[in-house]
Specification:
The complex is a heterodimer. Chain A contains no helices and twelve strands. Chain A is globular and about 40 Å long. Chain B is an all-beta fold. Classes of the chains: A mainly beta, B mainly beta. At the A-B interface, strand 6, strand 7 and strand 11 of A face strand 5 and strand 10 of B.
Chain lengths: 112, 117
């Protein structure tokens, strides 16, 4: 199984400041057929279901604010919130969708 | 509007069984792979199972293999998860999720399964 390791476990960021979350996979999730990285990011607010933010490592889901961006390739990925807003307080999870089992990272708690 | 509504959760004794259902609407259910993902109280997300759009292929996490069966009825736009030989560690909210572009783009609200004597 591909192991996904997120860091940090939690971080506190001031409003308007940048938040950066890292995700590392135990093997490459680059799909050679389309040269895309099979890595997604999800946001889960307290009491809610998860919400897809980013897929193919850097493609923003429709309706997701552009302050959210994803980057990275191979085994190392980053989710960046360029200017943290109060409504961004949540847990964030990375997930590889390269092969089953579609493993998740352990999550990162973002707070103000 | 895409909607996924889970049902069937509840309290069950260790060793017991439950059948979870997920009613899908707002999209052509038969065209999409579907998943179940679970989340134990206060814990992270864990992928459980996946089924192909026509039901011909399934995948399972090792932790549930042999105890859980995913299935679907495309005529009824419904996804199922048959859970058997339940253990304490199966206690979780179970989410029904749609796959699109290989990622999980729509999630239901979840149904809670509690395994306890």
């Amino acid at each position: 199984d591909i192991v996904m390791t997120q860091s940090p476990d939690s971080l506190a960021v001031s409003l308007g400041e940048r938040a950066t979350i890292n995700c590392k996979s135990s093997q490459s999730v680059l799909y050679s057929s389309n040269n895309k990285n099979c890595l997604a990011w999800y946001q889960q607010k307290p009491g809610q279901s998860p919400k897809l933010l980013i897929y193919w490592a850097s493609t923003r889901e429709s309706g997701v604010p552009d302050r959210f961006s994803g980057s990275g390739s191979g085994t190392d990925f980053t989710l960046t919130i360029s200017s943290l807003q109060a409504e961004d307080v949540a847990f964030y999870y990375c997930q590889q969708h390269y092969t089953t089992p579609f493993t998740f990272g352990g999550g990162t708690k973002v707070e103000i | 509007e895409v909607q996924l509504v889970e049902s069937g959760g509840g309290l069950v004794q260790p060793g017991g069984s439950l059948r979870l259902s997920c009613a899908a609407s707002g999209f052509t259910f038969s065209r999409y792979w579907m998943h179940w993902v679970r989340q134990a109280p206060g814990k992270g997300l864990v992928w459980v199972s996946r089924i192909k759009s026509d039901g011909s292929s399934t995948h399972y996490a090792d932790s549930v293999k042999g105890r859980i069966t995913i299935s679907r009825d495309n005529a009824k736009n419904t996804l199922y998860l048959q859970t058997n030989s339940l253990r304490d560690e199966d206690t979780a909210v179970y989410y029904c999720v749609r796959e699109n572009n290989w990622s999980l783009d729509y999630w239901g609200q979840g149904t809670l399964v509690t395994v306890s004597s």
